[in-house]
Design goal:
By secondary structure, the protein is mostly helical. The protein is built from 13 helices and no strands. It has a single domain, classed as MetI-like fold, CATH 1.10.3720. Helices cover 71% and strands 0% of the residues. Helix 5 runs antiparallel to helix 11.
C-alpha cells in the first residue's frame, strides 16, 4: 500500500523532460534536432569556425579540388571555387544568410498570417469574405514568380528578400488558423465567454490563441525549410542575394557553369541545402506528431 501511495504521489515529469524524452525516442526527431542545432552553432560562430575569409580571392587556388582528389590540399578540405575562394568557409558563412532569411521571413509571415486567420475565422461576415478573397488571389499567383517581379523592381538585399519571402508566404498560415478558429469558436468555453460579455479581442488572445499555437509552431518549422529553398532559388536565378554577400543560392549559381568539369563548386552548397532542409523537415514532422492532439501514437 505504501509503495502504491508513493507512486501516486510522485511528481509527473516536467514539460521539458517530457518533450526531451519524446524527442530522443524518435529517430527522425533526434536527427532533425541535432542537424538544426549544428546549423545554428555554425551560423552563430561562423567567424571562429571558418578558416578563411569567404570573399578572399586567391588565383593560385582556382578550382582546386577537395583534399581527397589529385591536386587537392588539406588547407582547403572541400576545394576552392573559380576564383580560389575556400568552399568550406563560404558554406559556413552561407549558413548565416540562408538561416537568417528562412527564420525571419517565417516569423514575418506567421505574425501576419495568424492575425488575419484569427480575425477572419472569429468575426466572419464581410471581414472573412474580404480576407479570404485576398488570400485566394495570393494563392493563385506562384510565390517565386511574384517574388521575382518585386525583387526586380525593388532591388536585392537581405532585408528586402526577407520582406518579399515573408510577404508572399503568409497565406498557408492564414488559411490554417482560420479553419481552426472556425472550429474553436463553436466550443462551449468560447460560447460561455461570449455569453457573459467578454470582448472579442480578449477571447481571441486568452482562449483561442493558446489553442492554435501548436499547429502554428509546426507550420512555422515546416515553412523555414521552404523559405530556405525559396532564398536559394531566387539567388540561383540572380534576383536574390547578390555577390559579394555569400549564400548557398549564390554559390549554386556560380557553380552551375562548372558542374561538368569542376563538380565540387556547385555540389557542396547543394548538399548543405539538402541536409539543412531534411533536418528541419524531420524536426517538423516530429513536432506535428507530438503536438497534434488527435495523434494517439505518442504517449
Amino acid at each position: 500500500m505504501g509503495k502504491k501511495n508513493a507512486h501516486k504521489g510522485a511528481n509527473p515529469p516536467s514539460g521539458f523532460r517530457k518533450y526531451a524524452g519524446l524527442l530522443f525516442r524518435s529517430q527522425t526527431g533526434t536527427i532533425g534536432f541535432f542537424i538544426l542545432l549544428m546549423i545554428l552553432i555554425i551560423a552563430i560562430f561562423a567567424p571562429h569556425i571558418a578558416p578563411y575569409d569567404p570573399t578572399s580571392v586567391d588565383l593560385r587556388g582556382m578550382r582546386m579540388p577537395p583534399f581527397w582528389m589529385e591536386g587537392g590540399s588539406m588547407e582547403h578540405i572541400l576545394g576552392c571555387d573559380n576564383l580560389g575562394r575556400d568552399l568550406w568557409s563560404r558554406i559556413i558563412y552561407g549558413t548565416r544568410v540562408s538561416l537568417l532569411v528562412g527564420i525571419l521571413s517565417v516569423l514575418l509571415a506567421g505574425a501576419f498570417g495568424i492575425v488575419l486567420g484569427m480575425v477572419s475565422g472569429f468575426y466572419g461576415s464581410w471581414i472573412d469574405s474580404v480576407i479570404m478573397r485576398v488570400t485566394d488571389a495570393f494563392f493563385a499567383i506562384p510565390r517565386i514568380l511574384m517574388a521575382m517581379v518585386v525583387l526586380m523592381v525593388a532591388g536585392s538585399s537581405v532585408g528586402v528578400l526577407i520582406l518579399i519571402i515573408g510577404g508572399t508566404s503568409w497565406v498557408p498560415f492564414a488559411r490554417m488558423i482560420r479553419s481552426e478558429v472556425l472550429a474553436l469558436k463553436e466550443k462551449e468555453f468560447v460560447k460561455c465567454s461570449r455569453s457573459i460579455g467578454t470582448k472579442g479581442t480578449v477571447i481571441l488572445l486568452r482562449h483561442i490563441l493558446p489553442n492554435v499555437m501548436s499547429s502554428f509552431i509546426v507550420l512555422c518549422t515546416m515553412n523555414i525549410a521552404g523559405n530556405i529553398i525559396s532564398e536559394a532559388a531566387l539567388s540561383f536565378l540572380g534576383v536574390g542575394i547578390q555577390p559579394p554577400t555569400v549564400s548557398w543560392g549564390v554559390m549554386l549559381a556560380e557553380g552551375r557553369k562548372f558542374l561538368g568539369t569542376h563538380w565540387w563548386i556547385g555540389t557542396f552548397p547543394g548538399i548543405a541545402i539538402t541536409i539543412s532542409v531534411l533536418g528541419i523537415m524531420f524536426l517538423g514532422n516530429w513536432l506535428r506528431d507530438v503536438l497534434d492532439p488527435r495523434n494517439q501514437g505518442i504517449k
